[in-house]
Amino acid sequence: MSMNRVFKFILIIFMLLVVIGASACIDEETEGTAEGAEAGEGSQDLVVGVGTDVSSWYLDMFASGDARFVWAQVYETLVRLDSDLNVIPGLAESWESSDDGKTWIFHLRENVTFHDGTPFNADSVVFSYSNQSYVRQAVLRPVQSVEALDDHTVQFVLAKPMPLPFYLTHIAWPVMGPSCLDAEGNFVKPVGTGPFKFDTQAKDQEIVLTKNEAYWGEQPLLDKVTFKVIPEAATRVIALETGEVDMIIKVPEYDVARLEAEEGIQIHRKLTTFTDFLQFNCEKSPFDDTRVRQSVAYAIDTETLVNEVLEGIGEPAGGRAYSPVMMYSDPDLETYTPDLDKAKDLLEEAGWKDADGDGIAEKDGEPLHVTLIVSKGVWAARHNPMAQVVQGTLREVGMDVEIQVLDEGAISKLESAGDFDMILRSGYFVWGPYPRHFFVHHSGNPYSHYNNETYDQLVDEADMTLDSQEQEELYHSLQAFVTEEVPAFYLVHEEKVVATGPAVNGYVISSEDPWLNLSGIYLERT
């Protein structure tokens, strides 16, 4: 064989080996892509970043913090709200009241089962609203009895008239399956009727829920939802940006503009039912004097809080107690316009003057020093910078404000002892559109720190009135009363801000807070 023929033969063999090798690489790459598509594009496993874990799943405790976003997937209520706060049927298809408003009858959905296959019926409603439930002890104290009239009809009898359906929309007191308890009455696991079932929980790490294949309503498109507990707001944002999570709740306002500019990330915003407010201890000096409370109201510029601290997210309240999305929120209510001179004059009228020129007012030789408590909880990212602005503004009128950032347990102890001046809060007695929040200042509430007989009578009368026009007039009167008397000064009507990653489709934000609607969400991973 000539050298030329040998060379050609070797060249052919080499080319064949190259082709075979390339084919093998292509096969491996194709196989990897197929596996990625199966685990990626086809996966309907959503990961949500939340700030707090679920510390309780049972009806005898209030679901605090972000736990309610998780409860909203597992449990359901008799009455629901749509994304614009309109009342719609939940586990009850319909309801009616007697003429006096003291008896309510709910007609329940049929063919609904709990996650363990046991039937949802009137007995489960009686169980969920028994005397041991948190809601009966703390909220629905006027309820005298809950009775099953038949398998799918329940009767609530109350000591006084009240708009019960609005009270039953809150996910913190849902319907639970009696089988969540063992034979000895010990809680075993969450048993609800919701679109997702409880699977596992690793304390302070994550909660895993799986699709309820037997769900009575519209079937969820997701197969699994994992709630990852990430306490720090900044860390949750990073987790979204790196793809560790698909969705985060309570996005810090200062991150919104940057996230909106990032490709693939969507920001969802909607004015919600919550309003940030300064609650005063009206039972001790200096805030036992209405003029001092009014001085604070004139001093603080709530537009500055929204535009400069919260990056334009939210709506300035100017003392208005109720968000515009709430029932009976008075659009013509006269609110506060910032006026530092007026604020100083009111302090002087109350006897507080800067006699030594150090910038701090004094009375009877005592400086005007007050504390402002801020929680370390889920609202800390917005409340901390707001508190600093309040501190600086009140310094201008002669008030020395000390900010104390504490956990909820420490706050509760100080509040129980009456050892505080101001607390920065959000929401409180707020669920759905109904103006239940006014009870926060009712003297019957141990944490009201305000006692006014006229106010109490107005609150009681408004809650017991069934005629909507009369009720609206009463709630308008209450809003004017709070604005004038200032048991609290209302700062900002909150916007709910949720961020979703590039894989998330179909999310619809709701004005209700706390509430997370996952219906219609599906994932397209690349």
Automatic annotation (TrEMBL):
GO terms for biological process: peptide transport. One of its GO terms (cellular component) is periplasmic space. The keyword Signal applies. One of its GO terms (molecular function) is peptide transmembrane transporter activity. Keywords: Signal, Transport. Its main location: other. It holds the Pfam family SBP_bac_5. It is found in: Cell envelope. PROSITE patterns: PROKAR_LIPOPROTEIN (PS51257). Residues 87-435 form the Solute-binding protein family domain. CDD domains: PBP2_NikA_DppA_OppA_like_3. Belongs to the bacterial solute-binding protein 5 family. This is ABC transporter, solute-binding protein. It comes from Methanosarcina acetivorans (strain ATCC 35395 / DSM 2834 / JCM 12185 / C2A).
